[in-house]
Design a protein that fits this description.
single chain, alpha/beta, TIM Barrel, 8-stranded parallel beta sheet, 9 helices, 40% helix, binds pyridoxal-5'-phosphate, PLP-binding_barrel, pyridoxal phosphate binding, Ala_racemase_N, Pyridoxal phosphate homeostasis protein
Length: 223
């Protein structure tokens, strides 16, 4: 059995060599695991539930960059804002307006989440709904929210070519949104794609942020 430290250094080197950053997804895992990775120098961690993040956050060092990666309900925005450095799941105009309203004086970085998989999902923008959102923001700008890129999840399948095609689609969405709406904003630069089962494909397709849990930490136990 390789130790966590060995597995971490192999994975983080692989991700860095591809020019991307690693977000370790720690949902369901105890704070001790996060502390161990923190001691190894890791700072970017992802959680997908507000209640779990609220429980873990006060027990851990303040210089962790927390990534919120799950669907965010509007009534949880005020709780999550003080805790996170990047919200990956910006999936509606109403959510972005709520974040903007609750941000008070700080700046909040958000990614636009697109639905690129074949599976049905209630969440994630289409090219068309994303365009409407961006046009509305152009008309009536957000004061505190800074959109810094896109995020998406591929279909859960062994078909690597399908996964590659979906990530390619997300990269194309990123490029056309940048061209049309963020040409003068170098901070619009992130493509969050790739999880344990498909991060290698995502890195090949230009991911800048991979979100990896089980490959590093083992299977999750939800009970
Ligand atoms: C759980 C989760 C991940 C990590 O999944 P693994 O397959 O364990 O790497 C990545 N992204 C999102 C949005 C998740 O909810």
């Amino acid at each position: 059995m390789p130790t966590l430290s060995d597995a971490y250094s192999t994975l983080s080197r692989e991700v860095a060599a591809a020019g991307a950053r690693l977000v370790v997804v720690t949902k369901t895992h105890p704070v001790e695991v996060i502390r161990e990775l923190y001691e190894l120098g890791h700072r970017d961690f992802g959680e997908n539930r507000v209640s779990e993040l609220e429980e873990k956050h006060p027990q851990l060092p303040k210089d962790i960059n927390w990534h919120f990666i799950g669907h965010l309900q509007r009534n949880k925005v005020k709780n999550v804002l003080p805790l996170v450095s990047l919200i990956h799941s910006g999936d509606s105009l109403r959510l972005l307006r709520e974040i903007d309203k609750r941000a008070s004086d700080r700046r909040v970085d958000v990614l636009l989440q697109y639905h690129i998989a074949e599976e049905e999902s209630k969440y994630g923008l289409t090219v068309e709904s994303g365009r409407q959102l961006l046009e509305s923001i152009r008309e009536q700008p957000l004061k505190h929210v800074r959109i810094v890129g896109v995020m998406g999840m591929a279909t859960y399948t062994d078909d690597k070519e399908q996964v590659a095609q979906e990530f390619r689609t997300l990269h194309e969405i990123y490029s056309s949104v940048k061209e049309e709406f963020f040409l003068d904003e170098p901070t619009f630069s992130e493509i969050s794609m790739g999880m344990s089962g498909d991060y290698e494909v995502a890195l090949q397709q230009g991911s800048t942020l991979v979100r990896i849990g089980s490959r590093l930490l083992g299977e999750r136990n939800y009970d």
